[in-house]
Amino acid sequence: MKTQSNDNEKLLINETFIVDHSVNDKWLQWMKSKFIPLLEDFDFVSDIILSKIHAGYNPDGENYALQFQIDKEKVDSLLEDENYTELRKKLDSDYKDKYASFRTTMSIIP
Q1: Beta strands in 9-98 (DSSP E)
Q2: Domain coordinates of the chain in residue numbers?
Q3: Nearest alpha-carbon partner for 30 in 66, 55, 57
Q4: pLDDT tens for each residue of 30-46
């Protein structure tokens, strides 16, 4: 586990996904084999957790939350990274109309 420096404010990123039942297993495997390993390659990203949200049966799909910490000054570096943007485009093309997501950025209160 990476340690947090006092000089370096961290943000918590939460991305919530709803994934159509028809592609759920394939999407989940893709996230674990492609997307999460990419995030792990960034030295300013830590504490990556992919969770299943238990909110009862949803006829539209399965719900997941992807959370990680990131150095505050590196958020733009991640979002502008060529590998990250290409992988996001692949996610959008491979699972077009089969998933939706939204991102929440939060400050961590010490």
Answers
A1: 10-19, 45-52, 62-71
A2: 10-105
A3: 66
A4: 999 999 999 999 999 99
Which position has the token pair 């997307």? 35
pLDDT band, residue 95 (cuts 50/70/90): very high
Angle at 85 between CA 39 and CA 67, to 5 degrees: 35
The rounded distance, in Å, linking the Cα atoms of 63 and 89 is 21
Cβ contact 27:73 at 8 Å: no
Average pLDDT value for residue range 10-34: 96
CATH class assigned to 10-105: alpha beta
> With contact defined as beta carbons under 8 Å apart, do 70 and 45 qualify?
yes
**Given a cut of 80, is residue 2 above it in pLDDT?**
no
